[in-house]
């Protein structure tokens, strides 16, 4: 029940020595500020580092061939082999729980030889032969036109989809792009679309300097035949690619006469596994943030505890008078605990507000400065705010518990004798 007299007593007690109250409250204020800022900075680092994964399905892996390390069935050690387009069909039909299996080929390299020409302009760009479903694995925004289609695959059309970096390198500002032709290693391709990567935080320049053409056209135009450079494989959402990738490896080994125990022959990069490791690392960093912030907060709580002990000692005679007039031990204890709670929660909420202001300033600076590598959108969730509130309530009770117990143990006669 709300008691105006009780709140007047609390405010009077806190105002009795304002400087001491402010110094005591600062410990809790600073502790909760450090806690929230540490969690926000950890989240910002996590957002920045995992942004690259957000552009490629995190339940995916790349798979390519390497030299064999063991002889098998009369074939020598160190043998090289290539995946074929039939391998893709075999994986799709024989391995369950796979969402996408995309064969890929690549020509040229970023900042490599001048492999693309348009009129008098030349450029060094990455050229990929892909299937239409690759856009589901590597999300991108189609700015004009369209992406690859199965009609392009089946008819081996000489069409391409180009990144914004290619547009900037080969076209004048404001020039029409769709319907024009570019020459890749002497072969003319019709531009049917332009793109940019969705929410890219990685090597934006390299991503933008990319050209996609139909996989079948790539094989015909650049004499790759049915060879597959590597594959991008994505599992269904509820099945980790890490748990089924060995089935894919075993199938490829049997199809290409590779020793079953030759783990070197097939190279791969498990994006889901790497993403899991990074997520685990940031979970640990979050726990460290809570731990360090809690240690700083504890120092502030100890300060409040000490000050409340001093306050109880200073008010010994007052407590004796109240006990003599009929105040119960629980009334005295409630008074001390309430004062401790008010001081803790007020200073803590000011700390949360100050931390929120600092986070807002950081985000404003980042918005103006543009993208920062490995750091983006430092923030905390409402769950963190509620957790901080619970910590403050518990801390306030603990800080006032010892002084409250000491106050209730005083005998009224002894308290009245104190000078």
TrEMBL record:
ABC3 transporter permease C-terminal domain span: 291-412
Keyword list, A-Z: Cell membrane, Membrane, Transmembrane, Transmembrane helix
Subcellular location: Cell membrane
One cellular component term from this protein's GO annotations in UniProt: plasma membrane
Domain MacB-like periplasmic core: 21-248
Matches recorded under InterPro entries: ABC3_permease_C (IPR003838), MacB_PCD (IPR025857), Macrolide_Exporter_MacB (IPR050250)
Transmembrane region(s): 21-41, 287-312, 341-362, 382-402
Protein's membrane topology: Multi-pass membrane protein
GO MF annotation terms: transmembrane transporter activity
Family: Belongs to the ABC-4 integral membrane protein family.
Protein name (record): ABC transporter permease
Protein species of origin: Winogradskyella luteola
């Amino acid at each position: 029940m709300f008691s105006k007299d009780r709140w007047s007593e609390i405010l009077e007690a806190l105002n009795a020595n304002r400087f001491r109250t402010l110094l005591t409250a600062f410990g809790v204020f600073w502790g909760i500020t450090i806690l929230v800022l540490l969690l926000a900075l950890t989240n910002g680092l996590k957002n920045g580092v995992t942004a690259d994964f957000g552009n490629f399905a995190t339940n995916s892996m790349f798979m390519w061939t390497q030299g064999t390390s063991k002889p098998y069935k009369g074939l020598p050690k160190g043998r090289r082999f290539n995946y074929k387009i039939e391998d893709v069909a075999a994986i799709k039909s024989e391995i369950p729980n796979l969402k996408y299996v995309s064969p890929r080929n690549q020509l040229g390299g970023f900042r490599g030889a001048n492999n693309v020409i348009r009129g008098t302009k030349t450029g060094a760009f990455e050229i990929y032969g892909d299937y239409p479903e690759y856009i589901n694995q590597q999300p991108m925004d189609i700015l004009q036109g369209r992406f690859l289609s199965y009609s392009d695959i089946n008819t081996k059309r000489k069409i391409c989809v180009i990144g914004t970096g290619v547009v900037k390198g080969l076209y004048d500002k404001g020039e029409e792009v769709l319907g024009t032709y570019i020459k890749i290693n002497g072969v003319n391709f019709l531009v049917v679309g332009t793109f940019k990567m969705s929410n890219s935080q990685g090597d934006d320049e390299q991503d933008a300097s990319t050209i996609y053409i139909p996989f079948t056209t790539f094989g015909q135009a650049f004499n790759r035949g049915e060879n597959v450079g590597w594959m991008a494989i994505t599992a269904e959402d509820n099945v980790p690619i890490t748990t089924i990738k060995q089935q894919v490896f075993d199938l490829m080994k049997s199809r290409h006469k590779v020793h079953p125990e030759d783990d070197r022959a097939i190279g791969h990069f498990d994006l889901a596994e790497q993403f899991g490791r990074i997520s685990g690392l940031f979970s640990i960093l979050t726990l460290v943030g809570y731990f360090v912030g809690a240690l700083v907060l504890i120092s502030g709580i100890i300060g409040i505890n000490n000050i409340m002990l001093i306050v109880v000692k200073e008010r010994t005679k007052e407590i004796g008078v109240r006990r003599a007039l009929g105040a119960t031990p629980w009334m005295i204890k409630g008074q001390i605990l309430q004062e401790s709670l008010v001081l803790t929660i007020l200073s803590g909420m000011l700390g949360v507000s100050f931390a929120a202001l600092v986070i807002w300033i950081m985000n404003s600076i980042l918005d103006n400065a543009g993208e920062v590598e490995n750091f983006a959108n430092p923030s905390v969730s409402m769950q963190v705010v509620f957790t901080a509130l619970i910590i403050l309530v518990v801390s306030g009770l603990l800080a006032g518990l010892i002084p409250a117990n000491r106050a209730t143990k005083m005998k009224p006669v002894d308290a009245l004798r104190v000078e």
